[in-house]
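Case study 2.
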Amino acid sequence: MSAREPQSPQSPSTTGPELVKRARALIPLLAEHAAEAERLRKPVDSVIKALEEAEVYKLMVPKCYGGLELDMDTFFEVGVALGEGDASTAWVSNFYIEHNWIFSQFPEPFQKELFASRSYVLAPAMISPTATVRPEKGGFRINGRWQWGTGVMHGDWVIPAATEIRPDGRPEPRWFALPISEVSVEDTWYVDGMIATGSNDVVIDNVFIPEERAVSMREMMSGHGPGSQLHAGPLYRTPMMPILTLAATMPALGQAKTALRLFRDRLAERVLLDASKQLDRSASRMRLARAETEVCQTELLLRHLVDDVCARRNAATLEDRARWATQLAMSVQQCKKVVQDIVEASGAHAHFQNSPLQRTQRDLNTLACHFVFDLDGKLESYGRLLLGQELPGGALF
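Prediction:
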């Protein structure tokens, strides 16, 4: 973990197109350091610094705190661009952006405290509710261990989720906010893909959290969190799950686009055993054309989804939100399939550990296992809603 100097909020001047331009300019840097990040099992410090200097992490912070207050269309362009460079660093960075949006949904006194001397925060948010929390006078007492601490290796704060059992027996899932100094991080992230995210475990031992550092997740799911009343921008009236899931989806699309480019370049230079060029084979040209079409199809679906979310915001029905969740899960599965097909057509060369394609395939295989991309579950729930049937308890849309 690295400590950062507090930053004074400044008047935002960076536009969406300018931020996208900066993100695209950083693609080579992310790609250059992808292997090093994998070796370190965390994002490279200099890359995180470059992203900070580009103001990427200010994207969703309200203007009143020195943020850029840009919307999901810019988030999409930035997130996919970073994904073209490296899936792991893009994954961490996209969640850093989205987690600042989560901070903008907390009660106003905490927001003002948090952003008093800085215009963004680097923080993991662990949604797996593997903890206990009990109310106390003025706040909550929390204990537990959370896996999947994406962003903890450079984090300033942490945002664990936990469920409060109310006096009436009704569960109330909440986000909580703690400075990194109040938690411990355990080195558990030994995986075969997305290695460079450094998503280690976070442990919290009997910590008191003031009530202003807690927020209802249920309100945020529908786009009616405190931020919807505090901030005028439509971004803060957007349901939580499409933003969270889009953050996880964009690295997959970015890497599918990069794999497609690498495959095209490889076809132009690869000579087969019979001295023929691979690009002269009909099957290879067909694979390239199919992959290009499938990537384009996925990108168009995601662009349509972003437009739809922006049009509906917190007026979206549960069916709308279930449709978005299904489309996002299907998009990731499609990206994973494209990469698998490309690796299959690229010969044994793609399986060398120094091949970007080899890392891309492992990263997408792991990325697609995130619970938000459980396509069977999303299809079943969406199908229920299409038929007018109720969802079982616990569905997250």
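Residues 282-312 form the longest helix (31 residues).
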